[in-house]
Amino acid sequence: MSVVKWIIGVIGGLTIIAGIVIPIVKVIVSRTEITKEVIRKGARSALAVGAVGLALLLLSSAVVQVEAGHVGVVKQFGAVTGTKFEPGLHFKIPIMHTVEIYRTQQIIYETSDDPYSSQATYTDYSVETMTEDGQRIIVRFTVVFNIDPTKADWIAQNIGTEADVIEKVVKANCRSEARNIPKSFKASDLYGENVYQCQRAIFDKLQPIFEDNGVVLVEFLLRDIGFDENLAQALEQKQIALERQVTATREVEVKKAEAQQVIEAAKGQAQAEIEKAKGQAESIRLINEQLASAKFYNQYLVAKGIAEGTTDIQWVVPEGSMPILDLAGVTAQTPQQ
After folding, report:
1. Residue 201: is its pLDDT beyond 50?
2. What DSSP designation does 166 have?
3. Mean pLDDT, the chain, as a whole number?
């Protein structure tokens, strides 16, 4: 109830009470004999004050305040008119019109073993079901949703109040899918990371159902899945073993990668040496070609060496040729006088 409506209602109620009490007090205070005239005056005063009070009460019932995050659907003698009240202060015709208020803010429906300890908007008990391999599990989940304000009049016409939406759409479908979809998963899948696949499967199944009923599904969260104690211990050991296996596999892959890097580095070094040798061989080949094609230049160098007394040149041998001169022998002879 809005503050304005409450204040007007209180004033109207007090006015009616005053209309009854004041004439009685006047009679007692005056200590006069009650006559017909006194009764008539008291009745007129009571009627006047009562009329004012009744008018104020009717006025309070005509005032409708819609809070932020809500929408109001106007009904006329119970029939949906198609008119909606957005957040703010509105007026309606008393008795003829009623307004059904729906929350358009996010609403939380949550299941747990102790619903009374939950702070969710709507609470319920956990769902019990079975896995594909026949293991008994307890599913605890949270649903976040909101009513589509554009479809509020359709909801009022076809579903009912907000409480009806929770019961007929949210609760009925969420509990059903939370019971049925985990049956297609093994217990070990729901214990590990594959639980998110189950969560997504439930969300995908619920989303179009909610949408068809004017509800926007924001999130479906599998908060916890309870297993039998012995099964939980077995699954935990299995999970630890799998994690160790994954760790060992990763270590092997790292070692393989490091060894491959060494091999590639060695191949690169060997290829560099090969290319270097090829370069040297090509250089020698080019030098030999030049020497072979410059025979007279070579002879010039020999003659120049003899004339200048160069003694460190022993042989000049072009590739594929016989020695031209034995410089050592020539330089060793003593000239005759």
Report:
1. yes
2. I
3. 77
Give residue 251's Cα distance to chain centre: 32
**Which residue, among 217, 194, 195, has the nearest Cα to 206 in the 3D structure?**
217
Q: Is the pLDDT of residue 239 over 80?
A: no
CA angle 320, 324, 327 (to 5 degrees): 130
The model carries a pTM of 0.57
Q: Is the Cα torsion angle 327, 330, 333, 337 positive or negative in sign?
A: negative
Strands 122-125 and 127-130: unpaired
Show the tokens assigned to 165. Answer: 């939406």
What integer pLDDT is reported at residue 92 of this predicted model? 86
Collapsing DSSP to helix, strand or coil, 109 comes out as strand
What does the pLDDT average to over 111-135? 92
What the block records as the tokens of 6 is 């409450």
325-329 CB contacts, 8 Å cutoff, 24+ apart: 327/302
**Radius of gyration (Cα) for the chain, nearest Å?**
51
Homologous superfamily of 107-227: Band 7 domain (3.30.479.30)
**Of the spans 29-38, 142-151, 240-249, which averages the highest pLDDT?**
142-151
Would you state the pLDDT for residue 62?
A: 80
Q: State in Å, rounded, how far the first CA of the chain is from the last one.
A: 146
**In which band, very low, low, confident or very high, does the pLDDT at 198 lie, cut at 50, 70 and 90?**
very high
Count Cβ atoms below 10 Å from residue 264 Cβ, excluding itself: 10
Cα torsion at 246, 248, 249, 252 (round to 10°)? 160
- Length reported for the chain: 337
> In this structure, how many other beta carbons lie within 10 angstroms of the beta carbon of residue 333?
7
